[in-house]
Amino acid sequence: MFGDLVEAIHQLTAEADNGDEIVLVCHEPDCGRRLVLKRSGGLVVLDRGDFFARHVGGSDGVTISTAIAA
Ligand SMILES: [Zn+2]
User: 15-43 pLDDT, tens per residue?
Assistant: First the structure.
C-alpha cells in the first residue's frame, strides 16, 4: 500500500573491486542502485535507484549500511 512506512531492505552485491574502490550494485527489480565505496573513505552514488530503500552489503571486511541521502 502506498505510504507504507516499513523500510525495504536491499542487498548490495560487489561487482568489481580494484583493491581501493568497490563497485556495489543492487539487483532488486526497479531499483538498480550502483555506488562506489572507497576503502580510503567516501562514497560515490552512480545510480540512485530506489531512494527509500535501505541498502546493506559489503565486500572483504568493508561493510555498508546506509540510508544515503546523496
Ligand atoms: Zn536497491
Answer: 999 999 999 999 999 999 999 988 888 88
